[in-house]
Write a structure and sequence with these properties.
The complex is a heterotrimer of chains A (272), B (318) and C (528). Chain B is mainly alpha-helical and 318 residues long. Chain B contains 16 helices and no strands. By secondary structure, chain C is α+β, with helices and mostly antiparallel strands. Chain C has helices at residues 2-13, 19-28, 33-46, 76-85, 133-144, 180-183, 246-254, 266-273, 303-311, 315-321, 353-363, 382-395, 410-413, 431-438, 453-464, 468-485, 514-517, 520-523, and strands spanning 54-59, 90-92, 98-100, 103-108, 114-119, 159-165, 168-173, 209-215, 219-224, 237-242, 260-261, 278-293, 327-329, 370-374, 400-404, 420-425, 488-501, 504-505, 525-526. Classes of the chains: A mainly alpha (272), B mainly alpha (318), C alpha+beta (528). At the A-B interface, helix 4, helix 5, helix 6, helix 8 and helix 9 of A face helix 1, helix 6, helix 7, helix 9 and helix 12 of B.
Chain lengths: 272, 318, 528
């Protein structure tokens, strides 16, 4: 399977793997304790502190490793949640049509119509912000976006002759969704999945920006950017490293998504 | 009546119901939020006494339902009322702010939408070759940086270092157009970078998806150039998901630019809404919320219509 | 050598250095008094104010919900607006003395109970009307009557009656208060025509500037009021631009789009001051950042636990890391050298993990995490400060858990409600006012629930004590009591740190508040 691995996919896979491994083994590989103050404010990089120190003198590399753990953990789970809920409901609405479609679509319209800032503010100020509630909130809010896309794609497919044929054959709903629609809707959805993962990463940092994200001293990458952002106007790197980390993670994940995209199209017997 | 016209009318009617539902939901949410406008205004200077007085003055001592239906009655007769906090008429404020917001999003959309689709088409044309990879990489990088990060980086280079563009968008009504455009050059650039990748990638994916169809092969066998095939045959059939994503991003340009407004001190709707939420100025929150909801609903209706019109099978349902 | 002296004399002319300091430095450099004097006078000539120009000020703390109603002002931009278009009876000068504005003079009876202000004649409102004592009375009534919505209501509570009589305005208090004029210097108490009873947000005052553009949350423009009675501002107009984002504010100053910004983040102050065309001004003031415990709520009702936490905070580290030296260490009572009658001999509490551990053990706390609530908006760097506190407490074996709350709603839901949280105080001009605001049993803002009759008695005794030596002694006893028993952990006093373009001249350090207590546009000028 990995024999024909293109270079871009190899790069994507290895970076993604490195980030995920670093996230899993954070306590083992981090040089210092997550919250330990070990130096002065914004020290430049040195042998003791490879990336320097942050805005109160914690080791930045350590913060980055733990921050990556938070970011990846939350973003991955929230993406999975949002995709399963959003796409299954979207397909279902497209295939069944009728009142289910109407009710779901209008409900999603309603949820999307309300600025997510208000929603997030209200919900997070009435429930406790833990990692779990963050994942559920982000996953469900984002599922509305996935739903719309999944439905739009599936509506196009559901009027194709082979789907009509399947319906006439008397196939069950599950068959139609998972055997007829899903394979043909996979490319745009996979392409979207990579992006939604990034949006999740950004969503956590926006929440941190509003002060309702993860609890200190824990931080996510977006939170580290924000904590150190005052230095940007003076070329201090502490805010740039986490931003670069987010960017490289995003690009790697999407390189992997692209590769899967190509593989699935060739699976479909297209010309690839 | 033509079935599509019927559909439009139906969707519009539904939209209005949806708006009312949204306003009720938003009102309910603001009621859940801790604190009220009186507390928010007085902040650290609040005492039991001045709180009670301010509440009475704002009418916050009346039951929630009364306040909601009063507001609803007002809005149905075209009266948005006055803000609780500074007592200015909301319609005036929103009129000003909305025109600023639309001005910014118009220019951002004018640049980003055609650019995204063009880049998407180029990426398909040179699929898996270096232009495709370059476009993918750059747009991905731009989308994966937090908005405020992109904004700060652009400000650092173009305002602080090079003095090319102003670091914040000091824009006022009487300004000549060119000056206004200069003032918003950095925010437009940031917004473009933020929405570009999403639309471009969807264009690319959707067209690639269509490119595997038999009729594309036929078109290619006819000897048409790759671009003509993409442009004439693949693109029209890939339009539904593209339009959905474009509309999502247009809505985002109107509704979701709070961060950009904060960084560039731009007097748009987002900032107005956030301030109103923070100060619990419920009539303003409701007015902004309903307008945002309307933007979403209208754009969604357009997206759905375009999808239907673009697909002959949907256009003529059996 | 002469270069240095030239530089220093320019500083004197610009008001950044006192004359005496300059002569001292000149003597140290071996320059005769005569030469030094002549250098000074030539520098003063060079510093003759340039007239005209449009001054732009980038400020945090402005919202689209702001109004020009003085009663509702609570953040920096409305404050700065009030300063521009309005005037109070008196201001507090940078020296701590009274600066008479709408009032010309004031007299009190022997007990400090009846205060009579002589109202200045020939003061014109921006709408052309002449100010009378009636306007003053109505203004004060609007801020103190039973349906007042004013943020100044709290400080008006001791007033028993008021009356206007010709050129005089008289206030009668329930109990004597030697500091009453300082209370009436509160920035809300801007004199409005007819007290602003019918149109409080009209933006009509007697100030040196009049309102030109009012776009809440965006910008406010003021032009010089040509019929102003006092010393005219040098500039033609001033624009207060709302730039709430720290980084954006800094960038605006760096790129030359504004002349001044307030609230420079201490972390970048040193970096900013390296820019050739920017000065960073820092002024020590009475403002302080605090962690407050409710002394009536478990576990903070235990004195040993309170002491444990007080010993477990590293004040030097906070000043160094959170304020980057732009501030000074606190000593767990809310008074510092910025106040008159401050007792500097009270021993400074140090970080002492061993002592903290000892008190912690004695308190018998069950070892469950002590929750400290904090928000980014509690004070600049609050979350970072909490993280440092957590670390230093951990070294003493005290389990502190930080809970970050949303900025939104922090002041209504967390502060003064939760038993242990971060907060700040802007300070007050005099000790009496600071203690009355937050440490009197009956105070609305008693955010440490410090209700000690003995303390109240001392405060009231000090208030009507006219002998400064005795008064200072009482204040010293109060400070010691609060320091050793109170619920206040006060790690640091923060400076006002502001960024000013070098084209701005005439800056005078003012410890009362930022932007020269709001008077920078009145006193500074712009050099081309």
């Amino acid at each position: 399977m990995l024999k024909n691995l293109p270079l871009s996919a190899a790069i994507g896979l290895s970076f993604t793997a490195i980030y995920f491994l670093a996230a899993i083994f954070a306590p083992v590989i981090a040089p210092y304790g997550m919250a330990d103050v070990v130096g002065d404010v914004w020290e430049p990089s040195s042998a003791e502190h490879l990336l320097g120190t942050d805005q109160i003198g914690r080791d930045l590399l350590t913060r980055m490793i733990y921050g990556g753990r938070t970011t990846i953990w939350i973003a991955t789970l929230a993406t999975i949640l949002s995709f399963t809920t959003g796409s299954v409901l979207g397909f279902l609405a497209a295939v069944t049509g009728g009142w289910f479609d109407q009710v779901m679509s209008r409900f999603v319209d309603l949820m999307m119509a309300i600025p997510s800032l208000i929603l997030a503010l209200v919900i997070l100020s009435s429930i406790e912000a833990t990692v779990i509630t963050l994942i559920i909130l982000m996953g469900l809010l984002d599922a509305t976006r996935v739903y719309r896309l999944a439905r739009a794609v599936a509506v196009d497919i559901s009027v194709m002759d082979y789907v009509e044929a399947a319906k006439l054959r008397g196939e069950k709903l599950g068959w139609i969704i998972f055997r007829e629609i899903l394979p043909n809707a996979l490319s745009p959805l996979v392409a979207e999945m990579g992006l939604r993962f990034i949006f999740m990463v950004l969503f956590i940092s926006t929440l941190s920006f509003l002060g309702i994200g993860v609890q200190p001293p824990l931080a996510d990458w977006g939170g580290i950017v924000k904590e150190n952002k005052e230095g940007i106007n003076f070329g201090i790197g502490a805010a740039l490293y986490p931003a670069i980390a987010i960017a490289t993670l995003a690009i790697s994940v999407n390189l992997v998504a692209d590769w899967i995209l190509n593989r699935t199209t060739s699976l479909k017997g297209g010309r690839g | 009546m033509h079935p599509i016209l019927t559909l439009v009318v139906q969707r519009l009617a539904l939209g209005i119901l949806l708006l009312i539902a949204a306003s009720a939901l938003i009102f309910g949410l603001t009621e859940i939020l801790p604190g009220d406008a009186a507390q928010a205004i007085l902040g650290q200077a609040a005492t039991e006494e001045n709180l009670a007085n301010l509440r009475a003055e704002m009418g916050l001592d009346r039951p929630a339902l009364t306040r909601y239906f009063e507001w609803l009655g007002g809005i149905l007769t075209g009266d948005m009322g006055n803000a609780l906090t500074n007592k200015l008429p909301i319609a005036d404020q929103i009129g000003k702010r909305m025109s600023y917001t639309l001005f910014l999003s118009f220019w951002a959309a004018l640049i980003s939408v055609p650019l995204a689709i063009l880049l998407g088409l180029i990426a398909v044309r040179y699929q898996n070759r270096w232009p495709d990879k370059l476009i993918s990489g750059v747009t991905l990088a731009s989308i994966s940086l937090p908005e405020f990060m992109i904004a700060y980086i652009l400000v650092f280079f173009f305002a602080v270092k090079l003095f090319w563009a102003p670091s914040f968008a000091n824009i006022s009504p009487g300004m000549p157009l060119l000056e206004q455009l200069h003032a918003i050059s950095l925010p437009v650039a940031v917004l473009t970078l933020v929405v570009l990748a999403h639309m471009m990638r969807m264009t690319r994916a959707a067209i690639l998806n269509v490119m595997q169809s038999a009729y594309i092969e036929t078109a290619e066998l006819k000897g048409l150039t790759t671009f003509t095939v993409i442009y004439r045959h693949a693109f029209p059939n890939a339009i539904a998901p593209i339009v959905t994503v474009v509309m999502l991003n247009l809505a985002y340009l109107v509704v979701g630019v709070v961060v950009v407004e904060v960084v560039f001190a731009y007097p748009g709707m987002g900032q107005y809404l956030v301030d109103a939420v923070v100060k619990r100025d419920v009539p303003v929150v409701l007015a902004c919320g309903v307008i945002f909801a309307a933007v979403y609903i209208v754009l969604n209706i357009i997206a759905d219509l375009v999808s239907i019109l673009a697909n002959p099978r949907l256009r003529h349902p059996k | 050598m002469s270069k240095e002296l030239e530089h220093l004399s320019a500083k004197v002319a610009a008001g950044q250095m006192t004359r005496r300091d300059f002569m001292g430095r000149a003597a140290a450099l071996g320059v005769s008094v005569v030469v030094a004097e002549s250098m000074l006078s030539s520098a003063a000539q060079a510093a003759t104010p340039t007239k005209g120009g449009h001054m732009k000020v980038g400020l945090q703390g402005g919202e689209s919900t702001n109004s020009l109603d003085p009663a509702l002002a609570a953040s920096t931009v409305p404050f700065q607006n009030l300063r521009a278009f309005g005037e109070c009876l008196v201001n507090v000068a940078p020296t701590g003395d009274l600066d008479f504005r709408a009032a010309e003079s004031v007299e009190a009876d022997s007990e400090g109970k009846v205060w009579t202000f002589k109202i200045r004649k020939g003061v014109e409102f921006h709408n052309g009307k002449t100010m009378t004592s009636e306007d003053v009375l109505k203004t004060m009534q609007r801020h103190s009557n039973e349906d007042a919505t004013s943020g100044a209501l709290g400080i008006m509570q001791g007033i028993e009656s008021m009356k206007a009589d010709g050129d005089y305005f008289q206030v009668t208090l329930g109990t004597g208060n030697a500091d009453l004029p300082y209370l009436l210097a509160d920035y809300h108490l801007v004199i409005q025509p007819d007290g602003g009873m019918d149109n409080p947000g009209a933006g009509i005052g007697t100030g040196a500037f009049k309102v030109e553009v009012d776009e809440p949350g965006v910008r406010h423009v003021f032009t010089r009021f040509e019929n102003y009675y006092g010393e005219m501002p040098h500039i033609d107009s001033v624009e207060n631009i709302v730039l709430n984002d720290n980084t954006a504010r800094t960038a605006a100053l760096q790129s030359g789009q504004v002349h001044m910004i307030d609230r420079v983040d201490p972390k970048i102050a040193a970096l900013l001051s390296r820019a050739p065309n920017i000065d960073v001004r820092s002024v020590a003031g009475p403002g302080h950042y605090v962690f407050i415990m409710h002394v009536d709520t478990a576990p903070f009702d235990n004195l040993d636990l309170r002491l444990a936490l007080k010993y477990a905070i590293n004040r030097e580290e906070m000043v160094e890391k959170i304020l980057r030296g732009y501030g000074s260490v606190g000593n767990d009572f809310p008074i510092n050298a910025a106040y008159p009658l401050f007792d500097a001999s009270i021993p400074q509490r140090q970080y002492d993990p061993a002592k903290a551990a000892e008190h912690y053990k004695k308190s018998g706390h069950d070892g469950s995490p002590i929750i400290l609530r904090v928000a980014d908006g509690a004070f600049p760097g609050a979350v970072d400060a909490a993280a440092l506190f957590q670390q230093s407490a951990q070294a003493a074996g005290i389990p502190l858990e930080i809970k970050r709350e949303p900025n939104d709603g922090y002041w209504s839901e967390v502060w003064n409600k939760q038993p242990f949280c971060a907060s700040y105080w802007g300070g007050r001009p005099v000790q009496d006012q600071m203690y009355t605001t937050a440490y009197l049993s009956t105070a609305d803002w008693n955010d440490t629930r410090w209700k000690v009759p003995a303390f109240d008695d001392m405060l009231l005794a000090a208030r009507s004590e006219l002998d400064p030596v005795k008064r200072k002694e009482i204040y010293s006893n109060m400070a010691n009591m609060l320091r050793d028993e109170g619920g206040l952990i006060l790690p640091m006093f923060n400076d006002f740190v502001e960024g000013v373009s070098t084209s701005v001249k005439g800056w005078i350090d003012d410890p009362n508040f930022g932007m020269m207590n709001g008077f920078a546009p009145h006193k500074c000028w712009l050099e081309a």
